[in-house]
Amino acid sequence: MLAGNFGVGKTSLFNRFIQDVFDERYLTTIGVKVDSKVVALDNGEQLKLMIWDIAGEVSQTKVPQTYWLGASGILYVFDLTRPTTFERIDDDIAFLKKKLPDCVIKLIGNKKDLVSSDRIEEVKAKFEVDAITSAKTGEQVEDVFLALANDIYAQTQPM
Fold this sequence. Notes:
Helices cover 30% and strands 23% of the residues. The longest helix has 16 residues, at 141-156. It is α/β, with parallel strands linked by helices.
């Protein structure tokens, strides 16, 4: 599942990963967009990801609770160019961990192509970011979805 504030690039990451396309136009997601992709894991296994791109915010009042049911992994996305999208990271991640205690959650800073390396370092100093991506250039997009898939698979395997 892709989660985070509106306008952070969730749909752009979704489209880049699924179809390898990028569209400059901003079109808000209404409700949820779902698609799937089969990926090859590090161990050679294949895993079919059902990816949900949900509208807007993580807030309990904005997202129907049924959207979270059954989620195995979440990419929580924020916009590196908009500090207002950083404001609720800690609260949103805490909410997600409470709602889905066994879910793999990765924190993703998007729109790397629009910020300086200094901004990236500032953000990394403040948050435990799992990846810095650019949906526009495709940088780290495939890698972040594959990392999530590998972590989900590893979590489901017996010790």
